[in-house]
Amino acid sequence: GYTPFYLKFMHEIHIALIIFLALKASSPRSRIILKLEFDDSQSMLRIFYNQYVFYYNTVSISYKNTLFKYRYKIFRRGDIPKTLEIFKSGKYIGEIRENNKIGWTKEDLEAILRKLNL
């Protein structure tokens, strides 16, 4: 059989792995942005996103606290799509990639960029 030390060690490794995966999944980088709404009357941007496949949420950001970066970004397997990154007071909120599997087309992204004057 296995020694008690080995069993305890393996149990702790499993717990550490579960915690690591939970933290990784809760990262804002794992958000999938589904929709953006611009409310000019209140100067607010509402971001609708999906996280963990079943968790839907909304973030509202005032225009003055919103920062956008539109640039090429390297992803796995060497993909380098143009990416619109969204920040709230310098803190990462999410991103929209051109031609990804979520349904954002180049035309959708161009319409957002025209709205943002980028």
Gyration radius (Cα, Å) is 19 Å
How many separate helices?
A: 2
Number of strands: 6
Helix % is: 25-40%
Largest sheet, order of strands side by side? Answer: 1-2-3
What is the average of the pLDDT values?
Answer: 85
Distance between the termini: 65 Å
Largest sheet, strands/sense/barrel:
3 strands, antiparallel
Low-confidence stretches: none
Characterise the protein shown here.
By secondary structure, this protein is α+β, with helices and mostly antiparallel strands. The chain has 2 helices and 6 strands, in the order αββββββα. The strands form 2 sheets. The chain has a 3-stranded antiparallel beta sheet with strand order 1-2-3, with no helix packed on it.
Features:
118 residues; alpha+beta; 3-stranded antiparallel β-sheet; 2 helices; 28% helix; elongated
Compose a concise summary of this entry.
The chain is 28% helix and 38% strand. With 118 residues, it is an alpha+beta fold.
What topology emerges from the helices and strands here?
Elements lengths: L3 H22 L6 E8 L4 E8 L3 E8 L3 E7 L9 E7 L2 E7 L8 H11 L2
Antiparallel strand pairs: 1-2, 2-3, 4-5, 5-6
